[in-house]
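Narrative of activities, Objective 1.

The group set out to show that a structural description can be obtained from nothing but a protein's sequence at a throughput compatible with the screening campaign. Below is one input-output pair from the validation batch, recorded exactly as produced.
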Amino acid sequence: MQLVRGLHNLRPQHRGCVATIGNFDGVHRGHQAILTRLRERATELGLPSCVVIFEPQPREFFSPQRAPARLTRLREKLELLAAQGVDRVLCLAFNRRLCELSARAFVQSVLVEGLGVRHLEVGDDFRFGCDRAGDFEFLCQTGAAESFTVEAAVTVEVDGLRVSSTRLRAALSHGDLPLAERLLGRPFSLCGRVLHGQKLGRQLGTPTANVQLKRRRVPLTGVYLVSTELDGRRWPGVANIGVRPSVTGDGRAHLEAHLLDFAGDLYGRHLCVTFYHKLRDEERFASLDALKAAIDADIAAARAYWQGKPLTHEPEQR
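Output recorded for this entry:
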C-alpha cells in the first residue's frame, strides 16, 4: 500500500482512482464494509483504490481536550487499511488552511485536480468543507458536473446496533470486550514501543512491559487479561491501563503488561497488546504491599483464565 502525505506530494500518476473519505478510526466492521465496496468498484473500473484520511482527526484539531479517545493511532490505522487491500492512502494535514476550504474548493482541489476521482464511496451523513456545508447531495450534484459517480455506504448493524466508532468507544469504556470484538471483527488491541519506566513491577516481583501509548486519552481503563505476539508466538498475560493512582506519575495514561512465564528483554520492541476480558477497575492502594497483593491476585486470575486455552491460533491480520 502506498502512503501519500499531503496534496503537495500527489503526482500525475496518482490521478484516476476510486476513493472514500473519513477518519476510519478503528477500521471497524462498518469501515470494512465501505472498503469492501471500494475494492469492488476499483476492480470494476480497473483503477486503484484510495482512502483519504486526516491527521489530526478534525475533532482533535477543533477541541483537543474534548476530542474522543483514539481507537487507532496513524501507524495502526495504516496497517489495518493495508490488510483490507487498500492500494493508496492520502493523508491530509487537518489544519486551519484545510478547514477553511469551502466544500466546492475541497472537491476541486482534492478530488478533481489532486486525485482525479472517478467514483466516490461515502456515508449518506458525510459532511465536509468550511462549516460542514458539503453533504451527500452536494457531492452527487458536483460529481455529475465533474464526471465522477457517488455512492452511499450501507449501514452495518451488529446485534441491532449501528456499527460506529462512537458505539465502539462506549463498549470499551464499559469493559464490554465481547461487544467491541463483534463491532471490530477482531479483538481490540493497542500498540506501542516498550520504554524504560519506574520499574516498580520489577521491584514487586512482577516485571512489566511499559508500552508507550502516544495519545491524550485511551478508550478503556482498568486491569485486563491480554496477549502479546512475540516472534510468531503469543504470550498470555495481564495488563493495567490507566493513570496508575497508587503511583506518583504524570497524569497521562500508561499501559503496562505482564507476560506470564516470559523471560527476556523487551525494551525498544514494538508490541501490540490484545485485550480479551476485564478483571477490575483501576484502584488506589494504601500501600505497596496491598498493591502487590492485588497484582498477585490478577496474575492468579490470568493463569486460571488461560489454563486450557493455549494461544495457538494465527495472529489476527493488522
